[in-house]
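Chain particulars:
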Amino acid sequence: MARTARERIEGDPVSSSIYGALMDQVLALEGCELQENASSFHVAHGRAFLGIHPRRGGILVNIVLERELTSDRVHRAERVSANRWHNEVIVTEPSGIDAELLNWIREAYALTA
C-alpha cells in the first residue's frame, strides 16, 4: 500500500501521467519550488499557491486565489481568509491540463510575485 504522495502518484498510471503533464507546465514558471509532504505536494513561489493531492485515477488540484472560481470543473471552493480561496479541481485525464486550468494556475502564481 502506497504511503507517501509520491508512492501514490507512481503507483497509479493515470495519476502519474496527469502529474507529469501538470508538472511540465508548472515548473516552467520561474522560481517555483516543489514541496513534497506526506500526502500531497505544494508548489510555492514565496508561498504555496498550488496543492496537488493524489487520488485513485486522477489528482485533486487546489488553486489558491483571491476569488472563488465559478466553473462546472470546480469540485469545491472554500474561503480560507478575507482574501484567499481554495478552489479544488479534480483532473482525471491528462487532457484536463488545458488552457483554462493553466490560466487559473498562472493567476495564482501571479499573486505570489
Observations:
- The mean pLDDT is 95.
- DSSP finds three helices and six strands in the chain.
- The radius of gyration is 13 Å.
